[in-house]
Amino acid sequence: MKALVYTAPGETQLRDLPPPELVAGEVVLRIEAVGICGSDMHAWHGHDPRRKPGLVLGHEFVGRIESSAAPGFEVGTRWTGNPLITCGRCDYCVQGRNNLCAERTMVGMTRPGAFAELMSIPAASLIAMPQDLTARAAALTEPAATAWHALNLSLRALVRPIHECRVLVIGGGAIGMLSALLLRHVGARTVVLAELNALRREAVATHAQCTVIDPRVKTPDENAFDLVIDAVGAKATRAQAFAAVKPGAVIMHVGLQDWASEIDMRKLTLAEITLLGTYTYTTADLRATVDALAAGAFGDLSWVEERALADGAQAFVDLDAGHCASAKVLLRP
How many Å apart are CA 234 and CA 211, to the nearest integer? Predict the structure, then answer.
């Protein structure tokens, strides 16, 4: 089978690999579409020690069952999936918060991912979807569920309903774009998105219909936002989030570009800021997101770019150089 392999920092190669072996309780999917995630880019830069060269990346996928060793999962049916493979037994899994399972492993990190024609996965990780859902929509389930989970956590912490709130989204990548689209869907009236890349600013303004700014030209208003979603997670964006958030308001930290940096603990304390972290999604979030995508909650998705898997190496280069207007590039094997 053809697979796009991460071979060294800044390098991927299309290679011929043996097809995955089918083991009990798992299925082999023939991949229809797979998205390039920010974490894939992080690995490509050599910044993720968990993802080592020689690995097939990719965890945002949709595919059709090629072979099955799991009862009830029929060959030919289409599925998306939860790339987090969890134990199913710990307190977090039992509570429905399986994204926090300490024993979790992950497709495209601890086992080969979906940048390939074929990929194996435990059947328990598959997420049912309408069989006629477009591959473009289905492959967005994972990143859209990340935005869904983050917004749900934020809504619980807000003092006022979302339609009364001013919201700042920092970053116009996939999570920022999907968050802006979802915010509009749930009734947020005032959404400002800050993004450095001019191509992405134009795409967000066109498709998410929110106010878009270049933070180098116009700094977000200070002490002005009820909710700030940091979809970048860099030292500079954390500082920007703390400057922009109102007293008594909420910062949702989603991105993790920089693993550590100082934050304004004085403002956090004296202004009673609620700082929330979020990690991926639960299985319930993924199922709800499939329904939302099928219902058009994230718009027509015309901003998504599709390329052939064979062009995947160049897609990584273009994304790194900021040459892609789209916040999400899908590869089609």
Answer: 22
pTM higher than 0.85: yes
Given 3.30.930.10, 3.30.160.70, 2.130.10.10, 3.40.50.720, which CATH number is that of 144-277?
A: 3.40.50.720
* Domain 2-140+304-332, classified CATH 3.90.180.10, yes or no: yes
How crowded is residue 16: how many other Cβ atoms within 10 Å of its Cβ? 7
Cβ pair 312, 332 in contact under 8 A: no
Show me where the domains of the chain are located. 2-140+304-332, 144-277
| Amino acid, single-letter form, for residue 124 | A
Q: What is the pLDDT of residues 102-159, one digit of tens each?
A: 999 999 999 999 999 999 999 999 999 999 999 999 999 999 999 999 999 999 999 9
Helix, coil or strand: residue 3: strand
DSSP H helices in 9-125? 38-44, 91-94
265-278 pLDDT, tens digit per residue, is: 999 999 999 999 99
H-helix or E-strand spanning residue 16: strand 11-16
DSSP string, 236-280: HHHHHHHHHEEEEEEEEE---SSS-----HHHHHHTT-EEEE--S
| Residue 229 backbone dihedrals phi, psi, to 5 degrees | -105, 110
Structural tokens at position 232: 């970048």
